[in-house]
Design brief:
Blueprint: H1 3-109, H2 111-128
Helix pairs in contact: 1-2
Amino acid sequence: MDTWLIVVLVVVAVALIALLALYLSKRSRIGNARKREQAREQLQEARVRSARADTEQALAEEQAARARRELAEVQERAALAEKEAREMAARADEDRTAAEQLRARARKAAPDLASGAGTAAGQDHQSSGRHGAPDGAAPTDQPETGGATRR
């Protein structure tokens, strides 16, 4: 074989190797660029999801705070209603005690007058379960202690 033919084959082989190296290098750069673009997209998606999670977390905390505040208000109203009910019951007991004292004074002052009316009124009061007037009498201004209170 001639030398020039060997030189031409070596030059062609070196050129092919150089072209293959350029092709592989360009392919690698394109792959790296694609990976970078995917990484950018993933980072952007991560930022969006993180912002959404922060917003949802803030809303959840706000809702929990509102629920705690409402619960505290309900408990406060319930405690106030219980206090008012106890005060009403105490006033009713005071009125009942005062009524008994008045009946006792009336019996002392006029035993013949108070004996029939006082006993009947006392029995009616006990049997009717109402606070105030006996059955058939006009109702008094005394509040009844049963039932719910509306606001």
